[in-house]
Amino acid sequence: MKTKITLLGLLCTLGLALNAQTQRLAVIGLDNKVPELANQNLTELVRIQISKHQSYEVVDRYEVQEVLSNESIEANNCFSKSCLLIAGEKLRVAKVASGSVDKLGESLYIRIRLLDVKSGSLEKEVVKEFLYIPEKISVMIGLAINELMGAANDKGLENSLTSRDSYESAVNNPHYNVLVLSGPRMGYTFITGEAAGIMRKSRSAGGYDAYPALFQFGYQFEKQYLNEGKFQALFEFIPMVSGLDQGLFIPSFTFLNGLRNNSNGLEFAIGPSINFITQSRQFKDDAGNWNRVRDVDNTGNFDEVNRMDSRGEIAIKSYVVIAAGFSLKSGKMNIPINAFVIPAKETLRFGFSFGFNARG
Question: What parts of the chain have a pLDDT lower than 50?
Fold first, then answer.
């Protein structure tokens, strides 16, 4: 007997649960008082967000429009409790939902009400205050509906749209466009230290017969892989040729990873650079002179090293580039200006470059 009673109780509980899940709900209308959202169908947005929870059978907009039109009820003006209950009875639903969107000061308020048609009572009401970001209205309504349905919200997302002290991100600061600075680059690089002395030597002595300040020309390709509010993270690839002004052809390829401020163009980047140079095996004798290994029969106990030499063979050498800069803006034209430094054991190089483009 006890087993039958227990089974009957479980069946009743299951039946009530199934009945609750299949209750019909109608969203009558959302009173929109925000001018920037005048062209948005916020009522349909509420309807969609409630449907996502699958807690009710949500009546579609066409049925709501047809039934209420036949009853001479204007859904766009049906916001009072009495009107909503009448609309719910005509639609033969268990629940009706309505609400409003208002701008008060620098805040956007969303109010959602859920009424029980049979009892005529207000079952639940949610009022949420958000930062005034009309572009994020769909996210805000989703957060309000989650609370109405008893579902948990993403605290980070909710905080970014409700707290003025939250960190800036693409969610609460959608107005900043990505600043793109791909384009030609030109400038000068200055060479110091031992390498500067080699540059000045004659070619017969292994130098380049050049002044240690080389003109550079190239192109910057960049890819933004993260954009949050005012800042973006980007990857830059810069192929360049140096020394054309002094009859030299020195190619290089630089790969940078950095951060840039979208509003003022300030940026910082660091990464490797691959350079093509000519060098030869040399050793330093007791007199302090450098000699090519190929020019002597026996180098003795002297240490041999690879050293810059215009008479040598082409080789690849890598460095680290540290760069910083900013961008000027004139109308649609961007003018990026950058300074860089390339530290190394035998020399220190530094320089500047600038370019232009007409992008975002």
Answer: 14, 16-20
Name the CATH code of domain 183-355 (choices 2.40.160, 3.40.50, 2.160.20, 2.60.120): 2.40.160
Q: Please give the CATH superfamily to which domain 2-162 belongs.
A: TolB, N-terminal domain (3.40.50.10070)
CA dihedral for 208, 213, 215, 220, sign (positive or negative): positive
Query: HEC profile for 169-224?
Result: CCCCCCCCCCCCCCEEEEEEEEECCHHHHHHHCCHHHCCCCCCCEEEEEEEEEEEE
Question: Reduced to 3 states, what is the DSSP secondary structure of residue 297?
Answer: coil
Phi, psi dihedral angles at 302 (to 5 degrees): -75, 145
The string of pLDDT tens digits covering residues 28-82 is 989 999 999 988 899 999 999 999 999 999 999 999 999 999 999 998 899 999 9
What does the pLDDT look like over 149-160, one tens digit per residue? 999 999 888 888
pTM greater than 0.85 (yes/no): no
Q: Across the strands, what pairs with 327? A: 336
The 3-state DSSP class for residue 90 equals: helix
The answer to whether the CB of 23 falls within 8 A of the CB of 94 is yes
